[in-house]
Structures are given as C-alpha cells and as structure tokens.
Amino acid sequence: MDYKSIEQLLERYWECETSIEEEQTLRGFFSSEEVPAHLHRYKDLFVYQQSQSEVGLGDDFDQRVLAQVEAPIVKAKRMTLIGRFMPVFKAAAAVAIVLLLGNVAQHSMSGNESSVMAVDTIGKQMSAPSVAVSEDVKMERAHLADSLKKVAKQSFIQE
Length: 159
Fold this sequence. Notes:
Elements: H1 3-14, H2 20-31, H3 43-54, H4 61-69, H5 81-110, E1 118-120, E2 125-127, H6 135-158
Antiparallel strand pairs: 1-2
C-alpha cells in the first residue's frame, strides 16, 4: 500500500473528515506487522480501537450498574412533640427576655417616683403614698364640704 495515501488519510482523520470505510482502511493498515518507523507511533491507537470495539459490556452489566445506582436506605430520625416545638419555645423565651429588659429599662429611665410603693415592714402591709392620707387632710376635706353646703343654702335662700 502506498504510504503517501496513508499519510493523507491520517491528516484527514485528525481533522475528522474521514468516512467509516477510510477509518477501517487505517485500522487494517496499522494492524499489519509491516508499519514504517515514522508511522509506528500511531499503531497503538488504532490497535487499541480495534481491540476495544470487540469488547462488549457483558451480561451482568445491567445488574452491576443497578447495584451501584440504587439509593441507600436512610433511617428517619424520630422526633418527639417537644423536639418539634423546641424552636418555638426558644423564640418565645427570647421575646420574653427582650420585653423584660425593655420594661426594666423604661422604668429605670422614667424616674417616676410617685408610683413607688412603700413597704411597712413592721405591720407587713403595703401602702402607696397616695393612700396614706393624714388626719389633717381629712379635716380639711370635711371643712371644705361644710363650707360648700353653707354657700349652697345661702344661694338657695336668696333666690
């Protein structure tokens, strides 16, 4: 066979322009024992292609692929009711802490002294300053009520 035509076929093969018959010609040429030294480096490629085209997948190929593809069995984790609601409990606790700190901060910054409760440690009674009215205030209230009654009688008589 002419080596020039083989070299031209090789050039067309590397450019992917050969037909199936031309590729079979190249495989036939390189499978022979007499290959020139400058083309010997391509012999292994074409001999390997020829040998691999004869190798099939085998009868157990489908079984091997399916054995590797099957999904592994995953055991489900058991969750209790408390475990399911745990994020909700944590969120509620966080909200309660924020509200508590806000309330404490509000009372500490307001400086409202009138709402402070005084504790009677002797009598174990609690009384607010507004509830602890002295006798003098009671007397003034009674005197004011009497004077209002007198003014009302006088205005009624004059009419």
